[in-house]
Structure formats: structure tokens, C-alpha cells
Design brief:
Blueprint: H1 7-10, H2 18-24, H3 27-39, H4 48-61, E1 66-70, E2 82-84, H5 101-105, E3 106-110, E4 126-131, E5 138-142, E6 145-156, H6 165-185, E7 194-208, H7 209-212, H8 216-221, H9 246-261, E8 266-271, E9 277-282, E10 285-286, H10 287-307, E11 310-313, E12 327-335, H11 352-367, H12 369-375, E13 397-398, H13 400-413, E14 424-425, E15 435-436, E16 448-450, E17 455-457, H14 467-489, H15 494-508, H16 521-530, H17 538-541, H18 548-556, H19 562-616, H20 623-654, H21 659-685, H22 698-703
Parallel strand pairs: 1-6, 13-16
Antiparallel strand pairs: 1-2, 3-4, 4-6, 5-6, 7-9, 7-10, 7-11, 7-12, 8-9, 12-17, 14-15, 16-17
Helix pairs in contact: 6-14, 9-10, 11-14, 11-15, 12-14, 14-15, 19-20, 19-21, 20-21
Length: 708
């Protein structure tokens, strides 16, 4: 019988949270720190020593011997360097456990060893991590080791941001300032701040670790470079929301407990649509906390899987032929006193503040659709977008029937006089209550869908950080709030100017609204007619970072400098080329050292069989064997030719010095070669004896996660 858990006592037990701070910090120190966290005031450096002392004592009491500045460089994952609390030994050889305010607030790290896009060279190595007091410190337990983790920002010696956290915090400041200006226009003087609220649904695959270790492609790249679906895939929809098997349930319980201890509000878990695919969703949190917590979710999923003999795959498309994995980014704006700016109310046509916020968001998404697409640009996402419940690469907004009707009224006549209501659904069963249906349906093909009181951006990839997406969302919306506030604050007749502004924005940006099937060819043509950008791949999307429009936007709100934007563009191009290079070389290696030898053994066995049958009976029919031998030999020749072509194009692409040009070469040449190489290999998998095939099949991987 499993141990009973008191979740209310467990939750946050490894977090230096508000309860711990209130108990351990001097009253005035606590007050000043909370003022910084809640209202965005500048951190008072004089309180750092008191906070550090309390944090150290709490950590040591809980078994910690080391601390680390925990940060998010441009690698997509987190980084950390551990230091012990011990001081230099005294004359008697004794040490003290020390941790100063200076050590809390700042640490130095090697900036040249992380992606910087040219901002840092090897001879310009100094970088700093800086305490983010808005995200609480926490304890990470690895066996007997306990480490105090301090969330930080990461910047270079010259001040440029080298991480995901710093721009996100800057963007939160920007949207807060401009949103408050909008609220003041409507007479709200009580709300002190507006913060982006985010919930990131995390999808992932689980497979048996022993089988994973037999797949070099999964080890090196996180996805299968070869392989075909078995007779059954996800056609029957029997895995989605299906009964969670014992082994998976034990894993999920382990994950929940670890996350709850870290203060991560893991709420929902279920089987996803594809076999071996699952999802975890948290309760909403402030954007920077949500970004930190999502990193902890990914780390915990990977570590917990190992304890259960499993491997967690976070790649966006680990298996061809079934759904890929995304990270739906649910975004809204909420005041400190509980007002959700995206709540339309029962009669949204009368909620003028909501209509202004909505029109500003539509304008932001339309004007900066290329940037929003870029925010979800990831090498793995190129394999996922456009099918199997993943949104297409064309950005559009789904509003649903109610809001679309209100928008049409405003555009048509300038006034909205009514809002559609949800219908009453009768179940037809006397013992079941009738249901009040939602006022609008859902659209799983829409990249940016309104879902009641938030927008769900479905495009983010499962392995990606949500920081970039929310940085861009916050910034583009801040720009439109600023434009609206600038205009309305100076209006002679506020109500008339507000009415005109809403109608103007909706009319101008109506083209971004689309409630139909995002997968259809008709939509591709219609989007082109509307002038919406279609950026199908990561390399197509990256240039959006360095357009004049983007540089002007991010500079105005001090989110990125031009040099930071250009450096991130370089990092993205380099990342694409490096990932495809690794995948291509893995394919070359696997084809040459595993698949080709296996096929040769198969052909030899087949040829020996033909000779033995003929020796026993000269009249025997060996046409089947000969047909298989002929086909496998032809495919083997094709496999080797395509392997050699891939090797040639990889070496040619590597010699290209310009990062953008090299990325395009990997996209146009190498990625195409990889698809060509996969085709004969996958056909051969359907011919060669299973006992000769060198690694587990899709069926082995996604249908045979045992109960043990």
C-alpha cells in the first residue's frame, strides 16, 4: 500500500516561499522585499545580507551543503555552478558555513562558453548571474545531496542579456506599465500592477529505457531518424484520456510529489492522443514563475522517468505518423487585485474595456505575426507544425462565434448591440442534468485561440522554453496599449475617441481572425490573399528578429538592444545548423554501422536459403526468396547511394562560413537528403527479419511499456 500524503503540508516544502520568509526575516526586511516583489520597486541592496543569512540557515537546516545560481542561457535548458557554504579554514583548521548578501545577489560565470551570437569571445569570458528576487529560491535533492538553487538572470560583462529570463522580466515591466495606463483611463485607481498570467501544458512521450538505449538516434537527437508505424497507430483514439497504466501512474505520482515540494502546482495529467504520449498541466502563475516552473517540470519528468526504468522524450516529433508534442502557452493579463483583463463577462458587447484590450491584442498579433511565429521556431517544431492537432505555421486568431459576431457588429455599424449566448444542451437522460454549453466551440487547428478568459498559443514546442514566447507576447501587446493610451489620454471626448479607436483597430486587423480549418489548402491560399506571412520553417522565421520593425519595437521598450537581437539571430541560425548536422551524422553512422550490415546479413541468409533449397530440389520454386533478395538488394544500393550523398552535402554545408547561409544549406540540402535516406531504410525494415533488424521498432517502443 502506498504511503498517504498530506499535499497541503508537502506543497512548497522545498521552497524559500512567503511563509518561510515571513517567519525568518526581520519584519522590515520582509516588508521591503515583498514591496519589490509585488510592486516592482528596485531591490534595496541593504537587505541582501539579512535575506542571505536567513536563506542559508533554512537551507542548512534542510540538509543543504551547496548553493547555486540557477539560470537559463540560450541553450533552452538551465545551467548551474555549485559552491559550498564553507569558508576558508581558520588557524585551527575549522571552517564556518557562510553565505553573504553579495554571494546571493551576484555570481560570476564564464559567458563565452554559452551561446552568445558573437557578443562574447573566448578572450572576453566574464559574465554575471544576478538574483531574481521575484522567483523564490528552492532546494533540489539528488540522493543525499541537497543544493540551494537561486533563480537568476544572466548577462555579459558589458551588460547584454545572455539568457531567457532577463528579456522576459523586461517585457513584464513594459506590459505592466502600459496596461496600468489603460486601466486608469477606465477609472481604475486601485490596481497596482498588471502581470501576465501563464499556464504551460507540457506534452511528452514515455518509453522503456532499455529499448531507448538500443536506439542511437534517440540517444543523440531525441527523435527517431528511422522507423515506420506498426499496423496500429492512434487511429482508434483509444489512448487519449485512456486508463493510466500502473507503471505510468507510479511515474506520474512521483512527478507530482517532486513538483509539489518545489511549489509547482501540477494539476492535470492524462494520456494524450498518441500511444505512449502524456500531458501535465499546472495552475496558472505569473509569467516568469511559469517559465521557471516549466523548466523544473521538464527536468523532473526526465529524472523521474529514470527512476522508473523509463525515458521521457520531450522532442516535438519523436515518432513519425502520430501526434507530436507541444506546449500550449495559455496567456492572460491579471491585476494584483484579481481582475482578468481578458474576461469578457456575460455580455462582452457592453464590456468596453475588454473590447479595447481585445482589439489591441488583435492588432499586436497581426502586426507582429512574424515575431510570434519566430517565438515558437525550433528545429523539432518544423516536424510537428501543420498536422495531427498541431497548429499550422501561419499565424491567425480564433475568437469563436460570440466574439466574432461582436467584432462583425462593431466593424459593420460601429456598435455592438448584443452578444450570443451559450445554448442549453439536453442529455436526453432523466437522471443527468441539462448542461449550459460554452458560448463557443474550440479550434485545435488555430495557433492563437481565445478560450474564455485567455489566449492559448498552441504553437510552442514541447522541448522549448516558454520565456521567448511570453517576452514577445508581452512586448507586442505593450506596444498597442501604449499607442491606445497615448491617443485616449489626450482625447477631447474620451468615449467618442474610444469608440472610434476600437472600430478602427478591428477593421484594420480583421484579417488576422480565422475560425475555420487551419489545415486546409484553402486556408493557405486565403491567408496569402489576406497578406498573412507563411513561414513554414525555423530558418524562414529567424529573420523576423532583425527587421527594422522588430528593432524599433524592442528598443522602444528596452527589451532587447539591436546587438542583442542580432546575436540571438546568429544563435538561432547556428542552433539550426548544429542540430541538423548532429541528426545527419547520426543517420550516416546508423545506416553505415547498423542497417547496412543487418541487410547484408539478411541477404546472405536469403541467398544461402535459395542455394540450400535448390540443392535439395532443383525444381523447387524459389521465386519468393529471389524476389525478396532482388528488392532488398536494390534498396540496399539505394540506401548506400543516399548515405553517400548525405555525407557529401553535410561536409559541403559545414564549409560555409556565414551562419545564415549555412543554416539554409542544412535546411535545403541536408534535411532533404535525410528524408531521402530514410525512405529505403524504412522500406527495408518491413522486409528484414525482426531478429536481424538492429534496433527496436516503433511497435516495440510505443506499445510495449510494460507494467513491471
Amino acid at each position: 500500500m502506498s504511503e498517504r500524503v498530506n499535499v497541503t503540508e508537502l506543497f512548497g516544502m522545498n521552497v524559500f516561499n512567503d511563509k518561510v520568509m515571513r517567519e525568518r526575516l526581520p519584519r522590515e526586511v520582509y516588508r521591503r522585499l515583498k514591496k519589490t516583489v509585488n510592486e516592482g520597486y528596485e531591490l534595496d541592496p541593504t537587505i541582501a545580507d539579512s535575506v542571505a543569512q536567513a536563506m542559508k540557515e533554512w537551507a542548512i537546516e534542510n540538509g543543504a551543503t551547496h548553493y547555486t545560481h540557477w539560470f537559463q542561457p540560450l541553450t533552452g535548458i538551465t545551467a548551474e555552478k555549485h559552491d559550498s557554504f564553507i569558508s576558508a579554514p581558520d588557524s585551527e583548521g575549522k571552517v564556518m558555513m557562510e553565505f553573504s548578501g553579495k554571494e546571493l545577489v551576484r555570481s560570476e560565470t564564464d559567458a563565452s562558453s554559452f551561446p552568445s551570437g558573437g557578443l562574447r569571445a573566448t578572450f572576453e569570458a566574464r559574465g554575471y548571474t544576478v538574483w531574481d528576487c521575484t522567483s523564490p529560491a528552492f532546494l533540489r535533492r539528488e540522493g543525499e545531496a541537497v543544493t540551494l538553487c537561486i533563480p537568476t538572470a544572466f548577462c555579459s560583462y558589458t551588460g547584454e542579456a545572455l539568457d531567457q529570463k532577463t528579456p522576459l522580466l523586461r517585457s513584464m515591466q513594459a506590459v505592466n506599465e502600459q496596461a496600468l495606463r489603460v486601466l486608469r483611463l477606465f477609472g481604475n485607481t486601485s490596481s497596482k500592477n498588471v502581470k501576465p498570467s501563464v499556464g504551460a501544458e507540457q506534452e511528452y512521450f514515455l518509453i522503456d529505457r532499455e529499448k531507448y538505449l538500443k536506439r542511437k538516434d534517440l540517444i543523440y537527437t531525441g527523435r527517431t531518424l528511422f522507423g515506420v508505424m506498426p499496423a496500429k497507430g492512434q487511429e482508434l483514439d483509444d489512448h487519449y484520456f485512456g486508463v493510466i497504466r500502473k507503471r505510468i501512474a507510479a511515474f506520474m505520482r512521483d512527478v507530482d510529489l517532486e513538483l509539489w515540494k518545489l511549489g509547482v502546482s501540477a494539476k492535470t495529467e492524462h494520456n494524450e492522443a498518441a500511444p505512449a504520449q502524456h500531458e501535465l498541466a499546472p495552475i496558472y502563475d505569473e509569467a516568469n514563475l511559469a517559465a521557471d516552473h516549466n523548466q523544473l517540470v521538464m527536468e523532473t519528468l526526465k529524472k523521474a522517468a529514470g527512476r522508473h526504468g523509463l525515458e521521457c522524450l520531450l522532442h516535438e516529433k519523436p515518432f513519425e505518423g502520430v501526434n507530436g508534442s507541444g506546449k500550449h502557452n495559455n496567456w492572460s493579463l491579471t491585476t494584483d487585485d484579481g481582475i482578468n483583463l481578458l474576461n469578457p463577462g456575460v455580455t462582452p458587447h457592453e464590456n468596453v474595456q475588454f473590447l479595447l484590450v481585445l482589439s489591441c491584442i488583435l492588432a499586436a498579433v497581426d502586426i507582429h505575426a512574424d515575431l510570434l511565429r519566430l517565438s515558437a521556431a525550433d528545429v523539432g517544431n518544423d516536424h510537428r507544425l501543420g498536422a495531427d492537432e498541431a497548429p499550422p505555421a501561419i499565424i491567425s486568431v480564433f475568437l469563436g462565434t460570440q466574439l466574432e459576431d461582436v467584432v462583425e457588429q462593431l466593424i459593420g455599424t460601429g456598435y455592438a448591440t448584443n452578444s450570443k449566448r451559450g445554448k442549453n444542451l439536453k442529455t436526453g437522460v432523466t437522471t443527468l442534468p441539462d448542461l449550459d454549453a460554452d458560448v463557443t466551440d474550440r479550434n485545435r487547428t488555430s495557433p492563437f485561440a481565445f478560450t474564455g478568459n485567455k489566449f492559448e498559443f498552441r504553437m510552442v514546442g514541447s522541448s522549448d522554453s516558454i520565456a521567448s514566447t511570453n517576452t514577445i507576447l508581452n512586448t507586442i501587446v505593450a506596444e498597442q496599449f501604449k499607442a491606445a493610451a497615448d491617443r485616449l489620454e489626450n482625447a477631447a471626448d474620451f468615449q467618442l475617441e474610444l469608440h472610434d479607436l476600437i472600430k478602427e483597430l478591428l477593421s484594420k486587423h480583421e484579417r488576422i481572425i480565422f475560425n475555420g480549418n487551419g489545415y486546409s489548402e484553402e486556408w493557405v491560399a486565403e491567408a496569402a490573399r489576406r497578406g498573412l506571412p507563411n513561414l513554414p520553417s525555423m530558418v524562414d522565421a529567424i529573420p523576423a528578429l532583425t527587421t527594422e520593425k522588430a528593432i524599433r519595437l524592442f528598443s522602444e521598450f528596452d527589451i532587447y538592444t539591436e546587438s542583442e537581437l542580432r546575436s540571438r539571430s546568429a544563435v538561432e541560425f547556428e542552433q539550426y545548423a548544429k542540430v541538423i548536422n548532429i541528426e545527419a551524422r547520426a543517420m550516416i553512422n546508423i545506416a553505415g554501422k547498423q542497417i547496412i550490415p543487418a541487410v547484408i546479413r539478411y541477404n546472405t541468409r536469403l541467398a544461402d536459403s535459395v542455394n540450400k533449397v535448390r540443392a535439395a530440389c532443383a525444381e523447387a520454386d524459389v521465386s519468393v526468396q529471389l524476389g525478396l533478395l532482388t528488392r532488398s538488394s536494390r534498396l540496399l544500393r539505394e540506401l548506400q547511394d543516399r548515405r553517400e550523398q548525405l555525407l557529401f552535402d553535410v561536409e559541403r554545408s559545414l564549409r560555409i562560413r556565414d551562419a545564415e547561409e549555412r543554416a539554409h544549406a542544412y535546411h535545403d540540402l541536408v534535411a532533404a537528403d535525410m528524408e531521402a535516406l530514410r525512405a529505403p531504410a524504412d522500406q527495408l525494415e518491413g522486409i528484414v527479419d525482426k531478429d536481424l533488424w538492429p534496433f527496436p521498432s516503433y511497435g516495440d517502443l510505443i506499445f510495449e511499456v510494460s507494467e513491471q
